[in-house]
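Two folds, back to back.
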Amino acid sequence: MNEKTIAECFRRMPNISSLDVSDVSSKIKYENTEEQTDQMEVTEQKHKLNEVEEKHDLESQGTKARKLHSCSQCGKSFQNEGILNRHMRIHTGEKPYTCTQCGKSFTGESGLSYHLRIHSGEKPFKCDQCGKEFISSSNLKTHLKVHSDEKPHVCSLCGKGFSRLDCLKLHQKTHDKVRDHVCCDCGKSFVTTGELKQHQRIHTGEKPYHCTQCGQSFRSTKALRIHQHGHSGEKPFNCDQCGKTFISSSYLKKHLTVHTGVRPHMCSLCGKSFSRLDTLKLHQKTHDGVRDHVCCDCGKSFTKSTQLKRHQIIHTGEKPYKCSVCDKSFTRSGSLQIHERVHTGEKPYVCTRCEKSYKHLPSLHTHMKKCCK
């Protein structure tokens, strides 16, 4: 029954006014509109529900698709076939990425890239607090703990605290006197695998770290870094007693024994004593007439390898140490450093009696002979 038919029926009925008919008609229209609205809302809700179900189905399908790339050896699943193939190398032992410098192989390209920095000496990650450089961001992150006051790892024997657990474990070996990494060639033992590997290069002759400026090779990154200071002329470690500068802290430490006056190493042939053992060994060569570092160009021989290297520059004519102010070049970094005082006016050698200062150490010695009389 439609709206017009219902209205006509009401007109024929007694005691019902036109106003009442109008009201009924409006009410019917309202009820119809409300019903339509309800139907629309139900339809919309069904549509939304269908969309959610469809989305859930797609996600389920995606998850199933991702899990299709599963390892047949251990059952681990991966998002794509490339990651699965890389994972499979763990089981197969395949290492397709090989270092052209030392022949060491890696399962992934990132592992090779990381390794190559060891040869080049490249350390792109720098600590903004102490300037120390690292070959990876993870190594830098681990190092940054050193600068924090937090030292949660405490030695139960002496109470010393450490920022890192691996440092504590290494420290504990000193109490136990554990040197469990033994060289199979000579039987010498070490606390860490790193120390053992570096030591073994003495036997193998391996020198995997190359200077990019002169091609010279070294057994450790530390030795390479010290050598590179020689090219730059940089000597950042300064003796506060005589002003002499050094390219490494270990060289400065050895030098400081000169100022203590203690000379525990004595020559059994002439009785002369030395503050350092290596100096005594070099001295003993003078008694034995040993000059085992020979120049292949002229046959001249030397007691020390450093003396030979310095001599060989005569044949090459090389002057690798250049002044940044006047471009004058020198065969030795020490000569460059002395020359640069002409520009800076620096006088590091000071008389302890009259405080007069000099640019060169021999000048101070000459002055001291007169001043001390």
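---
second:
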Amino acid sequence: MKQLMRIVFLVSLMTIAHGEVVIFRKCNENVKCTVHEVRINPCPEAAHNKACVMLKGTNATIAFDYTPDFSAQQVTAKVFWTQTAVDLPFAGMDTEGCKYTSCPIVEAHRQTYSYNLPIQQKYPKRTFDVKWQLMNEDQEMCCFIIQIAIKSKKDRN
């Protein structure tokens, strides 16, 4: 039984870590980092280069591989609903980045960040550009923008 539980756990981890590779774009800020790949689970829409549909009351895992051009003992993660004129903070986000990537951050060392994002019922239903930042003490950062569509479970299709 323990062996079976280990196998189920490992398969779950592999699924979470892999997810669907999604299209992302670089932020306009002065970024000191290379983001190699962004994955979202679940996101079957990625196969058609469409915004990932995230259902209210569920969780989505966001993971990305990055190589920073900076080092850091601690990093802060920030997520925003981004628009041309303003960035609005994403409510409920845990900003302690070292919980979701290995710290200290080592310059030129490829790493992975993985976060389980709860999609709260209070989020409005629509398509958003979401800016994700991982920033050190000196405001040096990794940053990318993805597109998501928040829907209620009854509006899935």
